[in-house]
Amino acid sequence: MENLFQAFYLFLWYSFLGWVLEVAYSAIRKRKFINRGYLNGPLCTVYGFAALVISWVLQDLQGNWLFLYLGSMIWGTVVEWIAGHFLEWQGNKKWWDYSHLKGNMGGYVCIRFSLLWGLLGTVGVTWVNGFLMMPYQSLPQLLVRIVLGISAVIVAVDAIGSYAVIHKLKNMDAFLEANDRIEEATVQFGHSVVGYIARRMERAHPESTAKKTKAKPTVFAEGCGFYKLFMLLVVGAFLGDIVETIFCYITAGELMSRSSLVWGQFSLVWGCAMSVATLMLYKYKERSDGFLFVVGVLLGGAYEYFCSVLTETLFGTIFWDYSSYPLNLGGRINLLYCFFWGIAAVVWLKKVYPFLSGWIEKLPMKLGKVLTWCLVLFLSVDVVVTCAAMGRYQERQAGEPAGNEVSVYIDEVFSDEWMEERYRNMKLVE
């Protein structure tokens, strides 16, 4: 809970600082105040989310300037790319467009601002985080939590009101009225900073372009929607487990399970990677092999590093350690495997994806949907049981006895011997 309070505190600060940066940038270029955020309040949440991701994932790289900069550049770009697509989906338009800049991807991100993300992330992790946390640690915690609670309510009201305005929802008078008051206060604040009167949200983004209305699908999992991505996740997880098992057998002479879950042969690291790669690079699948390789190296390395931090944070375990490999980064990733990610991106998008996509789309509409949701249910239960088994394994290593019947059942089914056989590379950490 304390971590959540700290995260929300930093989220608010960075969202506000990002808003100030955007307002200043617009003021210098256009000589007027423009509210650049999705919300009506003085917050640009893209910066808040990017700062949290960068601070959490890359905290081990503090002091390693090069990799901290590269990691910040990659993760800031990824967050901006996701935010651009999400806001376009929500508001039926683009909220920014970099199509006129060199080195852009669909107008959502570009090299110029990716380099800026690297600088901002490096400065934030190295200096700004510690500076911002000083008031949090100095003030009475009760006061801090009260202020954060009030701020959370205001942000929630602002978000609901902004959503209602964009989608022209009725019967939400209270939220719309609060939305107007927040906007008015923001305008006054922006006026004091810049000296000009702000315009409404629609006028804040004159470069926005209308999003084309999609026709109702007639083929199961057509395009790159939820059904296609989830089926690719399942197939990718299975194929990834098989490929890793064969690779370990060839290189180490040992046949071992590489599955992430207790039931079935599924490597979620690979499955999620294939699904995310398809989502992010689907529009660029016709680009050159060199382009896809470079993007695959960067995104694959960042993704594997993220997964390493995530599993260590959630389960207190390390499932892979590349410390013995040359050119590794904290044992989480290494250059050789990053090249493998690049090769995998090319092979996946050029060869495997078209083949699998065609077969998935051949499924009858009803059968495909039923099969998808059955797999969703199965994998959801599998993930929950895996988390429970991991939790009890940690507790047993710490000498904690089973506290209820569920724990007793887990101890019987997923004993230490079973877990260590299933996850042979697993190491517990402090």
Structure, described:
By secondary structure, the chain is mostly helical. The protein has two domains: 2-204, no CATH class; 226-428, no CATH class. It has helices at residues 2-30, 45-57, 65-91, 111-138, 141-167, 173-194, 226-252, 268-281, 289-315, 335-361, 365-397, 405-413, 416-422; strands spanning 104-105, 109-110, 317-318, 328-329, 333-334, 427-428. The strands form three sheets. Strands 1-2 form a two-stranded antiparallel sheet. β1 (104-105) and β2 (109-110) form a beta hairpin. α1 (2-30) crosses α2 (45-57). The radius of gyration is 24 Å and the shape is globular.
Radius of gyration: 24 Å
Percent of residues in β-strands: under 5%
Number of domains: 2
Question: Mean pLDDT, rounded to whole units?
Answer: 86
- How helical, in percent, are the residues? 55-70%
SS element count, helices: 13
Low-pLDDT runs = 193-212
* Major sheet: 2 strands, antiparallel
Strands, total number: 6
Q: How widely separated are the two ends?
A: 20 Å
Quick summary of this structure?
The chain has helices at residues 2-30, 45-57, 65-91, 111-138, 141-167, 173-194, 226-252, 268-281, 289-315, 335-361, 365-397, 405-413, 416-422; strands at 104-105, 109-110, 317-318, 328-329, 333-334, 427-428. By secondary structure, it is mainly α. Helix 9 packs across helix 10 (335-361).
